[in-house]
Give the backbone structure.
Amino acid sequence: MRYMIRGKKIVTVSQLGSLENGAIVIENGKIAAIDSWERLKEGYPDLDVIDCSSYVITPSLVDCHTHLLEFAPTSLYPVTPETHFLAGKTILLHALSSGITALGEQICGHPLCDFSKEDYQKAVRDLPIDVSFATTSISIGFENLAHFTSITQSRRVTHYDLADPVLVQMIALESDYPGENIFISATPANFTDKEVPRAGEIIYTLEELQKIVTIYHRLGKRMGAHVAGEEGIQLALDAGVDVLHHAHGMTDKQMEKSVKQGVKIVATPMGGTHLAPNSPEEILKYVEKDIPVSIATDSYLPPYLGTSWLPFQDQSLQGPDVLMLIAQPVMQLLKKQNYDENKILSLLTDNPAKLLGKDDRFGRLEVGLEANFLVAEGVPGLEITEIDKIKQVFYRGIKVINRD
Ligand SMILES: [Zn+2]
């Protein structure tokens, strides 16, 4: 199957930058050519053309930190284990309709979900969305700290088990990418402040962390951690963690250390830890220092209230449909600082694709990559935040969402 699609502008997020009045030739789900409409029209005179010349075409979005298949189904729907994945698929459809065609999912272990990584993989196998899984352990800040792992599934583990080398190795072996593989600071998860008084508490010693990082590195894997607060972030940096998720409350000095160590950041400006989330100014600093930063929703999540840059009025759970909305403040700030729209959009496309280790497949619009793209009324996040303004979503060359 071969066709051409034409757009008012194509924001490629590649070396090509933005192409005014551009077009893409798609063949067997991949990008075969991308150039100006004038040139491609001449080069491929007989091809069927989808005319989207009043819309912007961009790479589809990548949300590299989510909890859509494990935590979300039971939070949102009155499901049982028999209907759990039916809810999961509904949630993934919602993500797809929000312009997201690739996800980085966390499997942490959960009392209501006695599922293995294989079960989660099976549930998404034939869906038109790309899902990478990070297997993890998790520490929740209840009065009595609660710990779970992807391996032990619905069964609680002890604090001691978290650093058990055999268990850590089993978790590490199954992990597809550096998600929040361990929780250095206890998480509030989806709970309210009263329910999780110990959120933020540091779970590991430096020595334990170093041993855990070594296990990942020996297996040839990079490791990510859920972390917030100066003390926890320092531990993560000192132990050689590769990716910091959230990193709320990072100091300037710690940013410098991150640059030196080549650490990547997954910013979650909606919340997700016991501290105020990443502000637009903070994320701007990462970009200025050339720290590879991705923006992720960590959804479903009750948004942190009391920031000046987010519009949420209450703590009702928010999903992947707010990715553009929570990214807009920093995207507009970057624009004000004269960053190019391709660089700005890379925070929602190429950078998270790199984090997932899949930037050789998607995240940009260039020859040879998968034809995963959006047809929208403006640049996602920068110019539009409502999902209805995404008119079409294409996954591997096939239209999977249509609002026209
Ligand atoms: Zn998370």
User: Anything to note?
Assistant: Residues 84-97 form the longest helix (14 residues). The mean pLDDT is 97. The two ends are 22 Å apart (CA to CA). The CA atoms of residues 151 and 170 lie 7 Å apart.
